[in-house]
Amino acid sequence: MRVLLVEDDALLGDGVRAGLKLGGCTVDWVRDGEAARLALLDHAYQACVLDLGLPKRGGLAVLKELRERGNQLPVLILTARDSSADKIAGLDAGADDYLTKPFDLPELQARLRALLRRAGGTATPTLEHAGVVLDPASKRVTRDGEAVSLSAREYTLLLDLLRHRNHIRTRAQLEESLYSWGEETGSNTVEVYIHHLRKKLGADFIRTVRGLGYQLGDPA
């Protein structure tokens, strides 16, 4: 899951970014509202964690512009503003959830997972395909009931493919899900991780769509 984190507090932002990355997210972090606006225009995200009190452009303005463009990206407001009026204003502006500081990181992670389930039209916490089951809460992956050990990037790639199981994912889209800004990627990075997943989950689990990208194979 690629997340845009919009937080101007350096210490808090660094901690949230580190925590979300440990939870399997790829995180792009910006520190003002104008940078957030541009990031949302130029990149595809699965969720946004948005502070309200931001330099250059307030969080509510960023959110309202996003919704005016018809973008339904799940947005979780994370702010110290805890009055009922602030919560109502945030939710009415188009936020999907509202969490006040101080907060517990596991709760933030759980709320993001819930937002993604709702965005995907499913209430079930696990993702399944062809005998492979992934539980985002525990990050546990099994194949036919047997635990499968995956690296962090293998897990992230599998999660992306499962969440888009009915779509072909291009190499560029998969790279977007694997790497934050500034991280270098090798010319065949995606292919390497696809190869590793096929060895662990079955040669037919991921199929190559020539000239387009990758997609999960048809269930047996």
UniProtKB/TrEMBL annotation:
PANTHER family in the record: REGULATOR OF RPOS, TRANSCRIPTIONAL REGULATORY PROTEIN QSEB
Protein name as it appears in the record: Transcriptional regulatory protein QseB
Organism encoding this protein: Candidatus Accumulibacter adjunctus
Gene Ontology terms describing biological process: regulation of DNA-templated transcription
CC annotations in GO: cytosol; protein-DNA complex
Matching Pfam families: Response_reg, Trans_reg_C
Subcellular compartments: Cytoplasm
GO MF term list: phosphorelay response regulator activity; transcription cis-regulatory region binding
